[in-house]
Amino acid sequence: MSRLYLITGFLGAGKTTFLKQFIRTFQDCRMHIIVNEFGREGIDGDLVRELGIALDEINNGSIFCSCRLDKFEEVLEKALDQAPDVILVEASGLSDPTNVKKILRQREKFTEIEYMGCICLVDARQFLKVYETASVVKKQLKVSDLLLLNKVDLVPEEQIEEVCKVLHQLRPDLTVHETAYGQIQDDWLENMNSQETDCGEELFQTADVTLRKYLLQIREEVKLEELRGFLKMIMDETFRIKGFVCTEGKQYLVNTVGNMLEISEYEKEPHTTNMLVALSGSGMSVKRAVKTAMEWYPEVVAEFH
To answer: What is the number of H-type helices and E-type strands within the chain?
Structure first.
């Protein structure tokens, strides 16, 4: 039997950082990793090769949504052909995983899987905001078997207490484990038991309609400081802004999560440049914020839609 762990958490919660450490827990096992969405840094390729881990990536949609479910099942079946001891699945931050058990209970397909449970990472900085504006966050929490409140080193104790209060209201049956940098203790994992409850969701699901996606085409002649100023005016109305910008003769990776902004040099050649993707939710005034920012920084954005 192959033991399967699901790793969930909203955008920016630290899933990939967690996964890069979590794989060391199984160094003596044959592992297979399925990643639905690479984090900003991605999995450490040298570490994966060192540990002899097989890795598959599934892009362009949630693996639990009807648009990518077939691909997920195909990749999972191929992974089982290699008879790994452990399968780790990192779901997209936008995934609704409530049908994971229905998928794995298709006994004619997945007779060799033992589902160990769902580990959900919660971003202590951004949780209170995304909990109210993205319905998928509640769905990720409801199917969780282990809750890790991550990045507690970045927020005051009062905010940690407020987040824990909300988490306990939704999941009074689970202990909230506070951590930083995605660290996990062995005894937390040992005490994790997959729930036997059935959420009653259909096997095929559609995307979360409360989530909204916008595209920002950035002018080639943009100045880096103007871009930074523009993004600071709009990022509070988004969950995440991400993409590559070529300016002043260099490539940059732009990445925001909530009110945290990072623009760093990027040495590789991206597939698409000067196009940023902004994700937001219900009640977030992205269009108004962009309109105002474009008035302040008219040389930054060529098109917005």
So the answer is: 10, 13
Instruction: Return d(Cα 230, Cα 226) in angstroms, integer.
Output: 6
H helices of the chain, in order, are: 15-22, 45-51, 69-81, 100-104, 127-133, 135-142, 157-170, 186-190, 224-234, 286-296
Beta bridge partners of 174: none
Identity (one letter) of the amino acid at 251?
Answer: Q
**DSSP at 12:** T
Structure-token match 């709009």, residue found: 234
Q: Phi then psi for 118, rounded to 5 degrees?
A: -115, 125
Q: At what angle do helices 135-142 and 157-170 cross, to 10 degrees?
A: 70
Distance CA 175, CA 83 (A): 33
Q: Exposed, middle or buried: residue 121 (CB in 10 Å: 0-12, 13-18, 19+)?
A: buried
Do 62 and 140 contact (CB within 8 A), yes or no? no
Residue type, 37: E
The helix/strand/coil state of 118 is strand
Cα pseudo-dihedral 280, 235, 130, 260, rounded to 10: 140
Total count of residues recorded for the chain: 305
Query: Would you write out the chain's pLDDT as a tens digit for each of its 305 residues?
Result: 999 999 999 988 989 889 888 988 898 899 999 988 644 445 555 556 666 688 888 876 677 776 667 888 889 999 999 999 999 998 888 888 888 888 887 767 788 999 999 999 999 999 998 898 888 899 999 999 999 999 999 999 999 999 999 999 999 999 999 999 999 998 999 888 665 544 445 555 555 546 788 999 999 889 999 999 999 999 989 988 989 999 888 999 998 887 889 999 988 887 789 999 898 887 888 999 999 999 999 999 999 99
* Token representation of residue 183: 């660290």
The letter for the amino acid at 132 is E
CB-based contact 233:256 (threshold 8 Å): no
Of 296, 269, 283, 290, the residue nearest 216 (C-alpha): 290
